[in-house]
Write a structure and sequence with these properties.
The protein is an alpha+beta fold. It contains 9 helices and 6 strands, in the order αααββααααββααββ. The protein folds into 2 domains: about 70 residues, Arc Repressor Mutant, subunit A (Orthogonal Bundle), CATH 1.10.10; about 130 residues, Alpha-Beta Complex (H-NOX domain), CATH 3.90.1520. The strands form 2 sheets. Strands 3-4-6-5 form a 4-stranded antiparallel sheet, covered by helices on one side. α1 packs across α3 and α5 packs across α6.
């Protein structure tokens, strides 16, 4: 008999293939009881991996129809980064390096504008903490700390745009520039970089003191 994890995985794959199924249909496909299907569906609903809707029938009670949630759909393989790199290469070939640079600058400015309000009315240390939160929300797996000499050390253990950064160093330089704008200091140094073979991206950050 299949274990619980593999049965739930089979249910997810069934819903991916057929999009919408009833309990009876899923039980028939898997060769298990409807009660067993419902038990697994309860777990998947709890984990917000599936959604259900009631469909009215000509006769009898409304029927529950199940489908994958957006969160579950994201678990299937994607190749967004590979496609992005292909588009970037096409743009570079058609319009040249300047157009590629302009794309990164536009992204930098867009992100700065998006997060600008989150940096308002904060001390420098609070800004660093908020920057770490923003990057964590974007999937960068950030850790930060204040060092004994008063600097801040920020490390990113994941790069969601790694394939792009590996091909285009502008991604890294624009991230550095973005951090400078968000924190209001030019005194930021990148001492390690994932795209250059580092174990993580590491930034040393200092507050600029007014003269």
């Amino acid at each position: 008999m299949a274990n619980n994890t593999s049965t739930r995985s089979e249910l997810i794959h069934l819903l991916k293939r057929y999009r919408k199924l009833t309990v009876t249909e899923m039980a028939g496909q898997l060769g298990i009881t409807e009660m067993a299907v419902r038990r697994h569906l309860n777990t998947l609903e709890r984990d917000r991996l599936i959604e259900s809707t009631l469909v009215r029938q000509a006769m009898g009670r409304p029927l529950s129809v199940y489908q994958l949630s957006e969160a579950a759909d994201e678990q299937f393989p994607r190749n967004y980064s590979g496609l992005t790199v292909e588009f970037m290469k096409d743009i570079q070939e058609i319009a040249g390096d300047k157009a590629v640079q302009e794309l990164f600058v536009r992204r930098e400015n867009r992100l700065n504008e998006k997060y600008k309000k989150r940096m308002e009315n904060k001390s420098f240390e609070e800004k660093v903490a908020e920057l770490a939160t923003i990057q964590n929300e974007a999937g960068y797996m950030v850790e930060w700390e204040k060092t004994e000499d008063g600097q801040f050390e920020l490390k990113e253990f994941n790069c969601p745009i790694a394939k792009v950064a590996n091909e285009y160093q502008q991604a890294c330089s624009c991230e550095l520039s973005l951090f400078q704008k968000m924190l209001g200091t030019e005194k930021i140094e990148r001492t390690q970089c994932l795209a250059k073979g580092g174990s993580y991206c590491k930034y040393l950050i200092s507050e600029e003191k007014n003269a």
